Description:
By secondary structure, the chain is mainly alpha-helical. 78% of the residues lie in helices and 0% in strands.
Amino acid sequence: MLLILRGDPEAITRRLPLMMLPAILVCFASAQFGGVGILTFAHLFGFAVLAAAMTEYRTEKGLWMLALLFAVIWSAFIVLYMYGQLTDLRRGVAVNGLLAIDVFFTMFLMRLAVRFLWKTARVNYLISMSQD
């Protein structure tokens, strides 16, 4: 578990793709019960899909470009989420406690995904360049 929290590509690509089905099922269940947690589990599903796409990062040449593209996209999501939350705070919009917790865990997952993608891209780039 600690390796996953550190963004270790080997641990994430081995364990996280198994979370795709439970994450999407919890998303659908959450939508039926008011939507609490839907952001977190939707991003967990996306992170699991990314992990499944990167399973061959040690052998597939050039996968670092895809990893960097996804890292840029997920980083943009982080910036947009933060901008939206700060704008709401500045305007004095009432903050729903459950939504704030959901956004917190979503941001944590997104940060972990960007760390994973960066490490995956770095390892794959080094492997790609050494094979030339």
